[in-house]
Design goal:
This protein is an alpha+beta fold. The protein has one domain (1-182): Immunoglobulin-like. It is built from two helices and nine strands; from the N terminus they run αββββββββαβ. It has helices spanning 2-45, 162-169; strands at 51-52, 71-79, 85-90, 96-102, 107-112, 120-126, 140-142, 147-155, 173-176. Strands 1-2-8-4-5 form a five-stranded antiparallel sheet. Strands 7-6-3-9 form a four-stranded mixed sheet, with no helix packed on it. The protein is extended and about 75 Å long.
Length: 182
């Protein structure tokens, strides 16, 4: 009986250690894996640091996780390892947001239409600890990781407003920022 209890105790300890190890591995590595796959998928379609304008979501759309048919998106796979990236977007008279995600899925930047403070957002995304030369005096946001994803969302307030909102969305840009002195 003692041997049976000892074997059960060892088995429970083994399963517990295995469960903790699997949990740690999932929490540590799954977000990086997900973002790496998304980044690779986006950069197969267009070069890195280029804004994309996916079609309006429907039931089959999955480029963005669980997209809403009431929103239109612009998305950019960024890479600041070679230099800063300039991100611009008009801010429509509708709900709008811009978010930046590190390669581990952490959201390190979120701006909505109420916080934008105007009709346009224009900023520089840079490597951590590296301040670009910024003759344009734009806000500089340090990316948490060299690669990640920038996403804008615009609410379609009515079908009549869709063409104008879509035209504004397609003015959003994500491009290398030349940080040389003039």
């Amino acid at each position: 009986m003692v041997n049976l209890l000892k074997n059960i105790g060892q088995w429970v300890l083994f399963v517990g250690v295995l469960a903790v190890g699997m949990h740690f591995a999932t929490v540590r590595f799954l977000p990086d894996f997900i973002m790496s796959r998304l980044h690779d998928k986006l950069t197969r379609q267009v070069p890195v640091n280029t804004m994309q304008y996916p079609a309006r979501p429907d039931a089959s759309a999955r480029a963005v996780v669980k997209p809403s048919p009431d929103l239109i998106y612009a998305i950019c796979a960024y890479d600041v390892s070679e230099g800063p990236v300039r991100v611009t977007s008009p801010v429509p008279d509708s709900y709008w947001s811009l978010s930046a995600f590190a390669n581990n899925t952490d959201n390190f930047l979120a701006i909505n239409d109420a916080q934008a403070g105007g009709d346009r957002v224009d900023l520089i995304l840079s490597q951590p600890g590296r301040k670009p030369i910024n003759p344009d005096m734009l806000p500089v946001i340090e990316a948490q990781t060299p690669t990640g994803v920038i996403l804008t969302r615009t609410l379609i307030t009515s079908e009549e407003d869709f063409p104008a909102l879509n035209a504004l969305r397609q003015q959003a840009t994500c491009s290398p920022y030349v940080d040389e002195a003039p």
